[in-house]
Amino acid sequence: MDLRILDRLRCPVCGEPLAEATAGTTSALRCPRRHSFDIARQGYVNLLAGRAPHVGDSAEMVAARAGFLAAGHYDLISAALRDAATEAVGRLRATPTPTPDVGAYPLVVDAGAGTGRYLGAVLAALPDAVGLALDVSKPALRRAARAHPRAAAALADTWQRLPLADASTAVLLNVFAPRNGPEFHRVLDPAGTLLVVTPDTDHLAELVDALDLLRVDPDKADRVAGSLGGHFTPVSSVVHRAELALTQAEVATLVGMGPSAWHTDPGALAARLAALPEPVRVTVAVRLDVLRPR
């Protein structure tokens, strides 16, 4: 593991620094108190302290997401995050007394990273930065571990204490994922930036009624602000929109990679999909909130 990332990791049990240890063909991270965390052969490290309360996205959902993202349908999200992260790192480096390591080698953390595609896009625009993908889904982490040469991946429950040192992170990404305000605040450098992406009210609106999908909570923006307001100050909030022209198969993939996959009857979905004329016009509408630690 890249030492620039390893130096900022902490044991999820005791909070001590971690170091890499190898015994034969087995690699692990270990702290001075001998808590040990295995590195899977697929490249991610298990930094759970105990059992996870849930397993996250299934292999089928992750595969659907990987295929859909690879086709470029959500590239507007990658572009928005890339631009915002580049500005955030420039701002951090311009502070009078930037934290030395964070300023020289900014750590970008994606909390709820999925396949790591967004993290990879940000790192591609920041040649001096390193990245860490956190997720509770093992199928997702197998892909995230390969998202970028300067990225690492760790199995971690983002509702719990994050396996990171205080003030170790320059930019924290949170895309369609749970938000842990106190922990995000703890691990971010005081001059760091939190980037939160959430669906806007008309996101995938054409599909909601046609396919009986879950609706976006109309109070979503207020709930995001409420979950972070005590720890962060809003800087900006911009909605990014695009219209996609999808095949029925691509719509099926889009449904399969999101929360509706857990709540939709496959037979009923297939029947509704077959009734849609191609190409299927779909609105992508996501809100990017930029926040800084209080």
Q: Would you kindly provide a written description of the structure presented here, covering whatever features stand out?
A:
It is a single chain. The protein contains 11 helices and 11 strands. The protein is of the alpha/beta class. An 8-stranded mixed β-sheet has the order 4-7-6-5-8-9-11-10, sandwiched between helices. Helix 2 packs across helix 10 and helix 3 (75-93) crosses helix 5. The longest helix is centred in the first third of the chain and has 19 residues, at 75-93. It is globular and about 60 Å long. It starts with a helix and ends with a strand.
Segments where pLDDT lies below 50 for 5+ residues?
none
**Helix-strand pattern, N to C?**
HEEEEHHHEHEHEEHEHHEHHE
| Strand-pairing-aware structural class | alpha/beta
Write out the strand line-up for the largest beta sheet, numbering strands in chain order. Answer: 4-7-6-5-8-9-11-10
Number of domains: 1
Helix content range: 25-40%
What is the CA-atom radius of gyration, in angstroms? Answer: 19 Å
Q: Would you give the CATH topology?
A: Rossmann fold
DSSP helical segment count: 11
Average pLDDT, rounded to a whole number, is: 90
Net shape? globular
